[in-house]
């Protein structure tokens, strides 16, 4: 071999395929300010719409007077529920099977609810118009405390539902009740509790928060009257679903709707749902015949489009005296706000919360969830967790720590004792899931050895003794968290959105010169799909990733897919990509056999092409096969080289991880310091380790934000008191701790390349690690559970309540 012939290693490296830390191709435009976001779009004659919003959390709308607003220079129209009724769009269906007002119809049910839509020649005129719209309200008592929602005398929020005793998910028990969802074996679980040596019971709340992506929700709608076509550019995580929903509710033929998601500045679940702004901009464009832009501001984003969490979880664990868990019982009070607009697969009113048995071998469990209405914003979204998984992980990981405390056992040791063992996979959980693969002990041991867990516990014991002797005012906490995620929604047998199965898709088209374009039903919001999807194709078909262009987000060109959220892109679309590539490869093999004049079975794959078995010099590269596909295919074969795959996954994937947070808290000020944070993730086969690391950094930062301060809080009259970044904790580089990342690799047995999702994992595992660290720090003073978020003030108050300031 001369030195001009590349080695096998060089040929492999040239592909930048699976496992390569390939630089993100999208960053070339992002880092130079050349991204193309919705707000960059400026169409000729484009108008701007903005909302009149309710200052009240609950009020009757007596009248809306637009007369003065219409006199404001530039204001062209004021749309109200009455206008929308003429086109039957005053209310819209939600993903959760409820209905939601697009604009206030008779009453308002949460602060900043959309009341009227002012359309003007520019944003300033629209805002001036808003100030001139006169709305007469008659305030009603607001229902804010979820625990009072089902009181006998609780105010009736949803007058449209009066007398309806069943909802989308079964019977309703009360006028503010949405659904009750139960899973598991109640009798067996009750019996386990009766027999238990030790039980714990704690009300664990996961407070309301918000994903607040850098770019808020927005769209531009343009209706072409002549063609009868509607084009919508928007910040959609699921563009195809938006097209179908618009077609169904606006009664426009689906082929005449073009939905385009351009570059998106972060989604985090916020951009899954359908919001009144989209409907109003579309209607305004149809009415005016001009393109209409709607862009949320920060306060609107935080207070009106969606929320996350707000789960109040009464958690009970039964165990033997030596620490073997024997039963889990959880009741959740789920505060869904004014309309049930939670973004979950349709059959799952509380998402996949039944993953709450976590990483532990619970012989039996029982779960019940009551969903309720309150005077708060609707639209429960995942916020970096697949459908209520972060709530479930927080519930069980806090629960295990509380149990360890009661048993006087080390929390890590309790976990090791109860883990599902490697040989138990595929594992059937007591609440109905089939975990595909895992090796929890190995991951946990690696974490404990890397951070020298035993030494940390020793140091903590010494510090506690010193604290008790009055020698220090600092306490130390070790927050252990071991999570199991469930991502990849999902198998058509249990996942659909409004009846559409949750498959995903990929289409690959190879061009004659050995380059190609690939399109998917997913949509990157920053995750780096343009980079990673090409890596999968590179390894599968031996074409350098640089020669594959990845395009997502245009419903006219991309095959139908259910979009990007719930870390489903890698498990579902990632599989479709590999399958489409394999179809390309199969055709390529026939072409190569024909050209090399051998039988197909005499060929074997070798990095970037086929070679004849036993004759290594007789080869045909994939690049050459691409050319041949356009001029000399075997007789009877169609020319060209393209393939499409729609992939219905046989199961979810179950990533997992072992995290630990080491924290020091000054009891006199409540100020905490994250001394160390170590995160080991197992997401099966790793496509791009650098992107994974970035995903983990981002997810941990969001977990840190949520656990340590971020909150959407209402006062008793229903005012949002954390409605801007002045009050809503958004960590910057200054507050964010240093992250140490690590991994193990346990491939998914059913995924074509063995990959599981990872984007959400750090949030799911991170929140309990932080909260357990705070709780662990205070536990020796006699507390069992302190509610999140753990900001300085709450830490100080916890210290005070535990009597450390007693003179
Ligand atoms: N094994 C593996 C896995 C994964 N990967 C990578 O990583 C990423 C991610 O992935 P996933 O996990 O599959 O996911 P997706 O689906 O793609 O995405 C989603 C997610 O993602 C995350 N991340 C992120 N990033 C950014 N930058 N931005 C954003 O926004 C975001 N978001 C967030 C969220 S929230 Mo939800 O929506 O709540 O449900 S869900 C979510 C991509 O790129 C991929 O490729 C790799 O490499 N490997
Ligand atoms: Cu979630």
From TrEMBL:
Reactions that this protein is recorded to catalyse: CO + a quinone + H2O = a quinol + CO2
Class of enzymatic activity (EC top level): oxidoreductase
InterPro entries with a match to the protein in the record: Ald_Oxase/Xan_DH_a/b, Ald_Oxase/Xan_DH_a/b_sf, Ald_Oxase/xanthine_DH-like, AldOxase/xan_DH_MoCoBD1, AldOxase/xan_DH_MoCoBD2, AldOxase/xan_DH_Mopterin-bd_sf, CO_Mo_DH_lsu
Keywords: Copper, Metal-binding, Molybdenum, Oxidoreductase
SUPFAM superfamilies: CO dehydrogenase molybdoprotein N-domain-like (SSF54665), Molybdenum cofactor-binding domain (SSF56003)
Domain Aldehyde oxidase/xanthine dehydrogenase a/b hammerhead: 32-141
E.C. code: 1.2.5.3
Pfam families: Ald_Xan_dh_C (PF01315), MoCoBD_1 (PF02738), MoCoBD_2 (PF20256)
Record text on subunit structure and interactions: Dimer of heterotrimers. Each heterotrimer consists of a large, a medium and a small subunit.
Function: Catalyzes the oxidation of carbon monoxide to carbon dioxide.
Name of the protein this chain belongs to: Carbon monoxide dehydrogenase large chain
Lineage per the UniProt record: Bacteria, Pseudomonadati, Pseudomonadota, Alphaproteobacteria, Hyphomicrobiales
């Amino acid at each position: 071999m001369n030195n001009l012939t590349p080695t096998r290693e060089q040929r492999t490296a040239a592909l930048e395929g699976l496992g390569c830390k390939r630089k993100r191709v999208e960053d070339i435009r992002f880092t130079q300010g050349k991204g193309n976001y919705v707000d960059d779009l400026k169409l000729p004659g484009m108008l701007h719409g903005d909302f009149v919003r309710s200052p009240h959390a609950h009020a009757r709308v007596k009248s809306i007077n637009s007369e003065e607003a219409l006199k404001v220079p530039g204001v062209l129209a004021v749309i109200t529920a009455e206008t929308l009724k003429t086109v039957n769009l005053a209310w819209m269906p939600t993903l959760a099977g409820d209905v939601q007002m697009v604009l206030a119809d008779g009453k308002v049910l949460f602060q900043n609810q959309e009341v009227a839509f002012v359309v003007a020649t520019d944003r300033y005129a629209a805002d001036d118009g808003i100030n001139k719209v006169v709305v007469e309200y008659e305030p009603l008592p607001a229902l804010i405390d979820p625990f009072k929602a089902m009181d006998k005398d609780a105010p009736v929020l949803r007058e449209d539902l009066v007398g309806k005793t069943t909802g989308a998910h079964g019977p309703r028990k009360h006028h503010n009740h949405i659904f009750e969802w139960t899973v598991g074996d109640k009798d067996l679980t009750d019996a386990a509790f009766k027999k238990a040596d030790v039980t714990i019971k704690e009300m664990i709340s996961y407070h309301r928060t918000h994903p607040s992506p850098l770019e808020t929700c927005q769209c531009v709608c343009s209706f072409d009257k002549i063609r009868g076509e509607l084009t919508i550019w928007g910040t959609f995580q699921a563009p195809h679903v938006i097209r179908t929903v618009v077609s169904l509710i606006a009664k426009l033929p689906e082929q005449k709707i073009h939905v385009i998601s351009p570059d998106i500045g972060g989604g985090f679940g916020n951009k899954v749902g359908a919001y009144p702004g989209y409907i109003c901009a579309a209607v305004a464009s149809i009415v005016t015949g001009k393109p209409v832009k709607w862009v949320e501001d920060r306060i609107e984003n935080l207070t009106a489009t969606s929320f996350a969490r707000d789960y109040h979880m009464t958690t009970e664990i039964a165990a033997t005296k030596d620490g073997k868990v024997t039963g889990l019982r959880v009741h959740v009070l789920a505060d869904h706000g004014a309309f049930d607009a939670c973004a979950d697969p349709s059959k799952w009113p509380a998402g996949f919360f039944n993953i709450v048995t976590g990483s532990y071998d619970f012989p039996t469990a029982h779960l019940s969830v009551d969903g309720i209405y309150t005077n708060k914003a609707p639209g429960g979204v995942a916020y970096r967790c697949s459908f209520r998984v972060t709530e479930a992980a927080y519930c069980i990981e806090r629960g295990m720590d509380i149990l360890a405390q009661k048993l006087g056992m080390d929390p890590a040791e309790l976990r090791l004792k109860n883990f599902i063992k490697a040989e138990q996979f595929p594992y059937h959980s007591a609440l109905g899931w089939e975990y595909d693969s895992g090796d929890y002990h190995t991951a946990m041991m690696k974490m404990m050895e890397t951070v020298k867990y035993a030494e940390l516990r020793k140091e903590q014991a010494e510090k506690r003794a010193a604290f008790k002797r009055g020698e220090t005012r600092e306490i130390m906490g070790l927050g252990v968290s071991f999570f199991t995620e469930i991502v990849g929604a999902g198998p058509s047998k249990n996942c659909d959105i409004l009846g559409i199965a949750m498959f995903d898709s990929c289409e690959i088209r190879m061009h004659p010169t050995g380059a190609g374009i690939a399109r998917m039903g997913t949509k990157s919001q920053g995750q780096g799909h343009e980079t990673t999807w090409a890596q999968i194709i590179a390894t599968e078909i031996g074409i350098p990733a640089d020669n594959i262009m990845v395009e997502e987000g245009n419903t006219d060109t991309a095959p139908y897919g259910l979009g990007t959220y719930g870390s489903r892109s890698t498990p579902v679309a990632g599989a479709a990509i590999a399958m489409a590539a394999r179809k390309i490869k199969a055709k390529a093999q026939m072409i190569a056999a024909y050209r090399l004049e051998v039988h197909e079975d005499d060929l074997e794959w070798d990095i970037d092409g086929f070679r004849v078995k036993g004759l290594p010099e007789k080869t045909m590269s994939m690049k050459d096969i691409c050319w041949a596909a356009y001029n000399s295919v075997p007789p009877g074969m169609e020319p060209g080289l393209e393939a499409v795959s729609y992939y219905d996954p046989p199961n979810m994937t179950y990533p997992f991880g072992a995290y630990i947070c080491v924290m020091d808290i000054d009891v006199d000020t409540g100020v905490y310091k994250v001394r160390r944070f170590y995160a080991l993730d197992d997401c099966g086969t790793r496509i791009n380790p650098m992107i994974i690391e970035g995903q983990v950094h981002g997810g941990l930062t969001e977990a840190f934000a949520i656990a340590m301060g971020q909150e959407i809080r209402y006062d008793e009259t229903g005012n949002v008191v954390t409605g801007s970044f002045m009050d809503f904790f958004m960590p910057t580089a200054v507050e964010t701790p240093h992250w140490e990342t690590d991994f193990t690799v346990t491939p998914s047995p059913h995924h074509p390349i063995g990959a599981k999702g990872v984007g959400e994992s750090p949030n799911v595992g991170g929140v309990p690690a932080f909260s357990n660290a705070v709780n662990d720090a205070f536990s020796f003073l006699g507390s069992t559970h302190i509610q999140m978020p753990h900001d300085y003030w709450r830490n100080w108050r916890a210290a005070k309540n535990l009597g450390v300031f007693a003179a």
